[in-house]
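in:
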């Protein structure tokens, strides 16, 4: 089927770029602590923990660091007590935005998020104001690859869709429940993705013009760089032509 926009693809593949930033380990450790606290320390029995441990290993985090974070989550080691908080709002052109955070200080986090929205012409909404526009799904991405081989490997694993994009990349879409089954099937076939995550996919997208696109990209970058931000989801669409001008 037809591929997604270039902006869509860039956003999904930001994980590899973010791994180069100094903040990535801090964010991953927070996520490990929360996942272990919620679902226990056994990775095989805790999908959320397995997800973040895979991300941590892909970012070259040491296993000792991962294990210590798991122990903190289970109360075996003292440390900050994080909670998950989601903020929802709107930005340029009526685009919908969700910001998932992990915080040990709600007042600080909401002040940072609200300030960033206001500074960039956005506004925070109430809980649920935009969440209904998004659906949770598994997303496995290859920067390049053979579509037929990927299809053969995942067909029996419960894959939802395989998307060949205009830039040669391939996206594999799954339900959240089948995410690891599909990912393991790809691994068994010797196919290692460049990115794999449970994502929030918008039902509709808002196309931004050149001026709004430039401002919006700066806004998203500021949100992503906040200390407590884990993920930022949105429904903006920036065409390949606009991206080329930017």
């Amino acid at each position: 089927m037809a591929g997604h926009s270039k902006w869509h693809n860039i956003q999904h593949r930001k994980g590899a770029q973010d791994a180069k930033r100094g903040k990535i380990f801090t964010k991953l450790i927070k996520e490990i602590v929360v996942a272990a606290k919620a679902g226990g320390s056994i990775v095989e029995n805790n999908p959320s923990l397995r997800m973040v441990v895979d991300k941590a290993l892909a970012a070259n985090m040491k296993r000792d660091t991962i294990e210590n974070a798991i122990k903190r989550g289970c109360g075996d080691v003292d440390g900050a007590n994080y909670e998950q908080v989601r903020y929802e709002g709107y930005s340029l052109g009526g685009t919908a935005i969700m910001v998932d955070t992990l915080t040990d200080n709600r007042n600080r986090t909401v002040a940072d998020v609200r300030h960033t929205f206001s500074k960039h012409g956005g506004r925070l909404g109430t809980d649920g104001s935009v969440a209904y526009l998004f659906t949770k799904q598994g997303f496995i991405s290859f920067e390049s690859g053979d579509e037929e081989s990927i299809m053969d490997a995942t067909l029996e694993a419960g894959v939802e869709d395989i998307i060949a994009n205009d830039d040669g990349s391939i996206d594999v879409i799954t339900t959240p429940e089948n995410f690891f089954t599909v990912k393991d099937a790809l691994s068994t076939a010797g196919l290692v993705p460049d990115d794999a995550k449970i994502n929030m996919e918008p039902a509709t997208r808002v196309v931004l013009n050149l001026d709004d696109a430039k401002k919006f990209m700066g806004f998203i970058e500021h949100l992503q760089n906040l200390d407590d931000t884990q993920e930022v989801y949105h429904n903006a669409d920036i065409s390949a032509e606009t991206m080329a001008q930017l």
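note: The first strand starts at residue 83 and ends at 90.
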